[in-house]
Amino acid sequence: MKPSSFRYCAPETVEEALDVLEEHGDEAKALAGGQSLVPLLNLRVIRPAVLVDLNSIESLAQVAQEPATVRIGATARQRALELDSAIAERLPLLHEALGLVAHIPIRTRGTLGGSVVHADPAAEIPAVTVALGASMHVASREGTRTIPASDFYLGPFLTSLSPTEILLAVEFPPPPAGAGWAFVEVARVHGAFALAGVAALLHAGADGTLDDVRLALCGVGATPTACSVDEIVLGERPSDKLFGRVAQHVRDTVEPFSDGHAGAEYRREVAGVLAQRALRLACTRAGLEVAA
Amino acid sequence: MLHAVFLRSPYPHARIVGIDASAALEIPGVHAVLTGADLPPEFPPQPLNHAFHGQRETPYYALARDRVRYVGEPVAVIVADSPYVAEDARELVAVEWEPLPAVASAEAALADGAPLLYEDWPDNVAATFETEMGDVDAALRDADLVVSERFDLARLFACPLEGRGVLAEWDVYRDELTVWTSSQIPHIARDFLSWVLGLPEPRIRVIVPRVGGGFGAKFHFYPEEVAVALASRATGRPVRWVEDRAESFLATVHAREQVVEATMAARSDGVITAVTADILGDMGAALHTVSYGPVWLTAVMMTNVYVIPNARVRARAIVTNKTPLGSYRGWGQPQANFVVERLVDQVARRLDLDPAELRRRNLIPPDRFPYKGLHHVFDSGRYEDCLDKALEVAGYGGWRERQRQLREEGRLVGIGLSFYVENTALGPSRILNAGGVVAGGYDIGHVRLETNGEATVFTGLCEMGQGFTNGLAQLCADELGIDLDQVTVVTGDTQVCPVTGYGTGASRSASVGGAAVGKAARTVRRKVLEIAAHMLEASVDDLELEAGQISVRGSRERFVTMADVGRAAYLRPAELPEGMDPGLEAIEVFDPPQMAWPYGVNVAVVEVDRETGLVSFLDYAYVHDTGTILNPLIVEGQIHGGMAQGVGMALYEQLAYDEEAQPLFGTFMDYLLPTALEIPRPRVDHLVTPSPLIPGGMKGVGEAGAIGSPAAVAAAVEDALRPFGPTVTRLPLTPERVLAMIGTLGRREAATPAVEEAR
Amino acid sequence: MSRALHDALRVRLRVNGEAFERVVEPRRLLADFLREDLELRGTHLGCEHGVCGACTILLDGEPARSCLLFAVQCDGAEIQTVEGLARNGELSVLQEAFREHHGLQCGFCTPGFLMTASYVLEHARGVPGEHEIREALAGNLCRCTGYHNIVDAVRDAARRLASASPDKEG
Fold first, then answer.
1. Is A47 helix (H, G, I), strand (E, B) or coil?
2. pLDDT at B756 over 60
3. How far is CA A215 from its chain centroid?
């Protein structure tokens, strides 16, 4: 399990990195935290001729707390974000999900952007970007563009990022004040990839009826899956019965896959269960009572 | 030193048409590529240590000659300056394959028209073993109750965290071979290397350094050990191979996989009258070092700890296109325990008896020992005492009460128990040889008192973390009255250590190895006292040996030290008694008269998440009797580790293949080892009933933890799911299987959420 | 370093306080660099895909898998390996606790556990609870011990360290 040969560079600016990617195209691979990429290199599943190490580009690791958004640089470490009190306060959903990503010694190196670009359908962070409606800021030599999370993920390990582009940052709009959140998942052993996971965000108006509910799931489709439940929940008061209908809708909507750990039917069933649990927990955190 | 990597078959079954390594050999830093074509025509297949009566031959070689029978079978060895370069070269070795149809399970292998792994056989059955006692048909006919189930135990493996490794140095000028290898059987490995390579045994030195876990997987003689030696001869250089994790899943023996159809008969008062079992062992592509030993052991353990007068068992060893099956902690005992204990639970359910009570009514009583069961003679046991203590430690009655309350709250809480017995102190040689084991069942201990008064113990056993070196040192130190720190234990080197008959396995190191070392230490002690008596001008009977000093009883100022005695024995023989030879060492053999039989009870308390199928532990109690305990910390550590592996077997671990016999695993993402958060902390307690057969009374504890835990966890999950009525017959209990048993899956058209329905 | 591509690179780093300098291929894994080039074989390779944790080292004070890092990425880094725990032949408090609690059997996973646990102890506020320790150690696999004695060892070490420096309490 030793990687095949590659040539290596560690540019200090985004421009330099883009130059190398432009020159080598498909032959080059960008390296962020390496917690998914290096196993694939060690197993020789991939054999890039050129490895562009982004870890020396300081600007890529910055976290910017803007008034309206939180902009997290692509190579900000998961562990650093997990320990960042401003993230915990403004993006509690992301904070909760980060704690579920593998283990501490993985998160110390693993990056937010790396997880987003790797686009493992079972990964937590991509689901959070979908749930929160994040924007991906992307650069190539042609310039920059912004891709909404909902358009970013195309399939398992496949995104709309081209080989000559780099993810610069993910910009998260914090949820509305008073919103409840929850990330819950089922994994067979601690730290393993989720068989199914649900990111939930909800908000109720002054009258106690729900006016914003967002669900995104991981592990139950080719990509992180947003599940719109507006028709079921908007204007309703939280209740187990209501969330039971949401669960059923989730089961009707998702298109899970089967693998050695669980079949599609299990994932479908549990996606519903987790949606209910996430919504209940989110209500508790928002101070909302859940009727029977 | 050069580094070797192996090119392995990507096909479950294929003919090798040709191999072209020329491109690989052109890479700078590549020294050799060896294939099956480099083996001379008369080159022998890999020898086996177990040759049971009537088993068919399944020859396989250090490197596949013209046919491969499983994914991962070694086809070529590539030798280069570094593993990086060797892996580069491996990609350039071109093999032309002719794929053949494959069989992926024992049942598929038995089907009409199934592809044959060995063309000269009529079917894919490598061996059939049958045994019977009593009148089973009559017992079944007369029974008040007969329960039958089909049990399905997954393929898994020992998975030591350190993979295997081999370093071979073949000195072609002296024609001597030294092999450092991660083996549990150094002497057997040396003999087998000799038989295969044609080099006399004394010219081969096998050295086993401290090994990173074995659990039976390293009790095997592997093709890589031969191929790396050949690579060293071919290059004239030392060659090292270190198994990487990905290949370990394919190249190290698998274990456990069986399908068992079994029946138990009982009277309405709960007395079990008969058991039958039809066992299919999926051996993979060939019989490996221990042949179908684990399957055989499952067969003969089918009466467990119970007085069951009538039993009939058939075990068939079936070849399939998968990695060969072999040893793993417990051999075939966890499977037998699972089957018998699950059947006992079914009888209890059907008779509406508490499972503990049903067991109590059938345990072998103390006055029946030595007890001859289906095959073995059990040496001793206080089974009912052990059960009582386990129920007490577990707080069994209290848990039953809490279970009733929690069930009313809708929580799925279950209590499961299992009773196991383990065969340890494997021997005696005569019985092993009669049964087809090539090696013996004895062990030889060598103890030497050195000139400075410290002692060295030499043993052919291998330390892989069990801690028996500590136990041997303790035995020796106690016998010689010196400090533990003053004993050095030298292990697993065929050139300096005595032969260990069977190797390091079958929970025999402390018992058989310990008895041999104890015996040798006693012989040395006698000579120490004789020398001291001469030096002190006293009678041996008047001497005391303590804290490194030999003194005359009653007059402590008259003493000599162990160092004085050591110096006399080696440097100043003139100080020895008249006629005594210099030197102060002893080599003694212990061949146990019978095996020893430790036993114990697992009590697991679990909760099942009814919505996700996840199983979590609320409690775990473990009470056992392993005879004399040399070191409680080590014994408890063995229980912890074995139990963790049993929990892995019960809930997590599986090596799954698809229908074409392609593996669906290759990393730790696919093969799940439990973490610190998954394993319950057991409350361990013990009885001590010294074995009447082993000097010192030690029974052995290496495998115990792994034997009874899967059945206990299964029973607890079944008990938790009692409101839904399923019977747990398959492992591992994945959350998906648990939900399926609850009946939640496949009902999504239901109008109300399944969750509510289930309540 | 910039956009220039390299087939081999000079790496200067400190391991356990000692400076080293070597020229390596970019693909050389840090674990192999430590074990083979610097002959620090206490760091073990158990899976080479980041799951088992045996190769865990501290990179600039944080636990990381040395099988998922290239040596060239560690130019200028401060690395601690298991060899750095004992001082002047004296085992560290944590190592001593592992020994006393029988927290290792074969010892193969132990270096990784020790490094992860060192980080946990370094950052713990007071004495961490059993679950907290288990969660922190869940990224390290052990096949021998069933983990309980490891957990006890870490907890005991935390207690001893906390009582040695009372300001860490709370």
1. coil
2. no
3. 13
**Burial of C2 per CB tally in 10 Å (0-12, 13-18, 19+):** middle
Spatial CA neighbour of B361 closest among B273, B296, B435? B273
3-state secondary structure of B231: helix
Judge contact between B317 and B127, C-beta under 8 A: yes
**Chains adjacent to B (≥3 CB pairs closer than 8 angstroms):** A, C
Are C147 and B676 within 8 A, CB to CB? yes
B306-328 pLDDT, tens digit per residue, is 999 999 999 999 999 999 999 99
B676 touches C: beta carbon within 8 Å: yes
Q: Which residues of C touch A79 (CB under 8 A)?
A: 62
C131 touches chain A (CB under 8 A): no
Per-residue pLDDT reduced to its tens digit, A65-96: 999 999 999 999 999 999 999 999 999 999 99
Q: Which ipTM did the prediction report?
A: 0.96
Q: Do A39 and B677 touch (CB under 8 A)?
A: no
Q: Is the CB of B734 less than 8 angstroms away from the CB of A188?
A: yes
What are the chain B neighbours of A273 within 8 Å (beta carbons)? 611-612, 755
Picking from A192, A263, A272, the nearest residue to B736 by CB comes out as A263
Residue type, B221: F
C138: which chain A residues are within 8 Å (Cβ-Cβ)?
103, 190-191
**Model confidence band, residue A55 (pLDDT cutoffs 50, 70, 90):** very high
- C95 burial level (CB within 10 Å; 0-12, 13-18, 19+): buried
Inter-residue contact B514 to B527 (CB < 8 Å): no
Nearest to C94 by CA among C68, C66, C70, C58: C58
> Length of chain C in residues, anyone?
170
CA distance B241 to chain A (A): 12
Which residues of chain A does C46 touch, with a Cβ-Cβ cutoff of 8 Å? none
Q: How far is B6 from B62, CA to CA, in rounded Å?
A: 11
Count chain A–chain C contacts defined by CB atoms under 8 A: 108
CB-CB: which of A260, A266, A277 is closest to B670? A260
At B759 the pLDDT is 31
Beta pairing class for B67-68 and B14-20: antiparallel
Residues in chain A: 292
pLDDT tier for residue B426 given thresholds of 50, 70 and 90: confident
Bin C50: left if φ > 0, else alpha if -120 < ψ < 50, else beta.
left
Residues B482 and B487: their CA atoms lie apart, in Å, by: 8
Give chain C's count of helices (H) and strands (E). 5, 5
Give pTM, 2 decimals.
0.96
CA separation for the pair B204, B221 (Å, rounded)? 15
Distance from CA of C52 to the nearest CA of B (A): 8
Beta bridge partners of B133: B311
3-state per-residue secondary structure call for B715-759: HHHHHHCHHHCCCCCEECCCHHHHHHHHCCCCCCCCCCCHHHHHC
Query: Cis peptide leading into B428, omega within 30 of 0?
Result: yes
Alpha-carbon distance values, B719 to A92, B61, B152, B607, B622 (Å): 39, 48, 19, 10, 18
Cis peptide before B209 (omega within 30 of 0): no
3-class DSSP state of A236? coil
Q: Report yes or no: C32 at the A interface, CB cutoff 8 Å.
A: yes
Give the chain C residue whose CA is nearest to the CA of A100. C135
Closest CA to B51 of B283, B297, B291, B220: B291
Nearest residue to C66 (alpha-carbon basis) of C91, C96, C31, C37: C31
The helix/strand/coil state of A170 is strand
Give the integer Cα–Cα distance in Å for B230 and B169: 10
